[in-house]
Design the sequence.
């Protein structure tokens, strides 16, 4: 049975840890609002971009744009993995990295070589440790992604796909279903499937005569790279919002565990203290009785 000093020291240690986790929970909660607002502002634009692209592609009919053509023989793929720079976020990073490793193994079994673009220090460290050198690395930007980061990824993917060095490009990231839950999304970025972008209810598509300058094909060729950049950026800020939600959940769980542990230790402290007092009383009573005899 531990003595009172040991128990008191453990209680103080748990309370100190609880202050840290509680503070981190509050910081993450404050960041969630900013990250969620950024996603909310960007979502209408990305949705409109997808709808416009689908509508123009429908009007053009067939297109010879390289970003729309599916390669017959898939030998090289680019996997864009989006995780965080820091830990203490529950399974936010591990779930993505584990799925990425399975993706690479499954593709390797099909004879496809997977190149990795690592967004976040945790992804860089994970793949480097496994002797997988990322073709692109981004560190220090997971909580606040930039347009430049998205443009770099998009340009690498577009150039590789057009030149035939890449046969498909896949995004892998956490999407915040709500403030408390994240779901993993695996999206095919290239080739662009315009038929999948059209809304089932037809809402958002333009009707009537539309004049394209200089031509519908030229507009489509301009929209495709912009669409790829937009989708990459939206995935990055989506992942950033999910990161803060996951960290808040993890820190809340840690704080709750600390409270429970502190209560358990306090009860143990009281029992040990009561036992010590009872022992002292018995010793005093026993001594007094011996003196009377």
Sequence:
């Amino acid at each position: 049975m531990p003595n009172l000093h040991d128990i008191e020291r453990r209680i103080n240690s748990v309370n100190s840890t609880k202050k840290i986790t509680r503070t981190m929970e509050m910081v993450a909660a404050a960041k969630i609002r900013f990250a969620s607002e950024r996603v909310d502002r960007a979502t209408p634009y990305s949705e409109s971009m997808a709808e416009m692209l689908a509508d123009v592609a429908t009007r053009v009919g067939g297109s010879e744009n390289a970003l729309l053509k599916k390669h017959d023989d898939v030998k090289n793929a680019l996997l864009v993995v989006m995780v965080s720079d820091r830990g203490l976020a529950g399974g936010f990073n591990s779930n993505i990295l584990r799925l990425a490793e399975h993706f690479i193994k499954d593709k390797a079994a099909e004879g496809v070589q997977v190149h990795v673009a690592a967004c976040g220090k945790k992804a860089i460290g994970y793949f480097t440790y496994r002797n997988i050198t990322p073709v692109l690395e981004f560190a220090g930007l997971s909580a606040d992604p930039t347009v430049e980061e998205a443009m770099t990824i998009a340009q690498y993917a577009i150039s590789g796909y057009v030149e035939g060095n890449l046969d498909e490009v896949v995004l892998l990231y956490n999407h915040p279903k709500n403030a408390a839950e994240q779901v993993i999304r695996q999206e095919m970025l290239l080739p662009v499937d315009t038929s999948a972008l059209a809304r089932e209810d037809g809402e958002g598509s333009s009707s009537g005569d539309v004049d394209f300058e200089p031509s519908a094909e030229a507009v489509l060729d301009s929209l495709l790279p912009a669409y790829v950049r937009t989708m990459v950026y939206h995935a990055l800020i989506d992942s950033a919002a999910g990161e803060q939600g996951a960290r808040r959940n993890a820190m809340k769980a840690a704080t709750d565990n600390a409270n429970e542990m502190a209560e358990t230790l306090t009860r143990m402290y009281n029992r040990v203290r009561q036992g010590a007092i009872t022992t002292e009383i018995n010793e005093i009573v026993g001594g007094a009785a011996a003196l009377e005899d």
About this structure: The two ends are 35 Å apart (CA to CA). Helices lie at 4-60, 92-109, 121-129, 147-163, 194-197, 216-292. DSSP finds six helices and five strands in the chain. The CA atoms of residues 244 and 279 lie 52 Å apart.
